[in-house]
């Protein structure tokens, strides 16, 4: 099935083609026609399933003939839990709308940065992507009005609730018109999400894309290397240079290790940036942009800071430090092998890590090919 068979307008289909999307993902095949028909929808799907485009494309399609005519009265509202996800979702909308003849304005707003520039940019906004706290600040400042919102999207609703945004979400819902389309996306359907969807959604279509957490995506090849602790840094640099890796996401266990690793890589002629909670929002945004644009080859990140990172065709993920749990392992390697592109996940295992790595393999029901590295000459790395 192609995007042109989902009911999207020719302009949107061209926009998809310009982004080189090969074909719709399972969640897109089901969700796009239903959203175009105005149905409420409950989507249970993991990050990397294509869920953002599943709602972005039909929203942009409908917005072509239904733009916001009152200034600061947005037509579509997308609520997300984190600043990183707000930027990512906003980028998806912008990447598609850039190829649409009719100008549709999308803006992402979030806390941690000055509110004044966001207030100014809200003029003429059709689609607003927002974190709950910053949205309420903007509403209180009368910088945006929600009384004419026609479509509400709650993205990663489970994470939003787990981060304690339930009260903010209820305040926002009270500001919206009763007649509207509601789209709720979540990785899981736990009790909190179920309670929200029961009150929010009206006769929703359920789209559930099951991905066994124990299996991981099928387009990912996995490999582990046994490395002496003191040789981890040199071996990482050897691996990146020997394999000519042009874009690789490297996971570490702590913020200090991220900065240290970036310095070591830079000293050896490998351009790298760090992404962690110790950096300002501006620095994190710049780091991710440099990586996505190919200005740097390596992004070194902690698990927490990596939440919401979505690089469509990321070829390599390296676990420099082992994750704490099997669940974190699956989330890490799931950053590659997306959009039906092959990816490779590599794990560096020290003697101290060996037992923990065996536990991860057992819990995830996998046997990962492991190679010795003692014979590799690491001089100069």
Give me the secondary-structure category. Answer: alpha/beta
Overall pLDDT: 88
Order of helices and strands: HHEHEHEHEHEHHEHEEHEHEHEHEHEHE
The helix content, as a percent range, equals 25-40%
How many domains, as an integer? 2
Number of helices: 15
What order do the strands of the largest sheet run in, or round the barrel if closed?
3-4-2-5-6-1-7
Low-pLDDT runs: 212-216
Distance between the termini: 48 Å
Q: Judging by the overall fold, what is the CATH architecture of the largest domain?
A: 3-Layer(aba) Sandwich
Broad shape: elongated
Task: Please give a quick description of this structure.
Residues 234-379 form the Helicase C-terminal domain. The protein is built from 15 helices and 14 strands. By secondary structure, it is of the alpha/beta class.
What report would you give on this structure?
The chain is of the alpha/beta class. It folds into two domains: 3-208, P-loop containing nucleotide triphosphate hydrolases (Rossmann fold); 220-372, P-loop containing nucleotide triphosphate hydrolases (Rossmann fold). It has 15 helices and 14 strands. It has helices at residues 10-18, 26-36, 51-63, 83-97, 115-121, 132-140, 157-162, 166-175, 191-200, 232-242, 255-267, 281-292, 303-306, 326-333, 354-363, and strands at 41-44, 76-79, 106-109, 127-130, 151-154, 181-186, 205-208, 220-226, 248-251, 272-275, 298-301, 316-319, 343-349, 369-372. The strands form two sheets. A seven-stranded parallel sheet has the order 3-4-2-5-6-1-7, with helices on both faces. A seven-stranded parallel sheet has the order 10-11-9-12-13-8-14, sandwiched between helices. α5 links the parallel β3 and β4 (127-130). α2 (26-36) packs parallel to α3, α3 (51-63) crosses α4 and α6 crosses α8. It is elongated and about 65 Å long. The chain starts with 9 loop residues before the first helix and ends in a 9-residue tail after the last strand. The relative contact order is 0.13. The model is unreliable at 212-216 (pLDDT under 50).
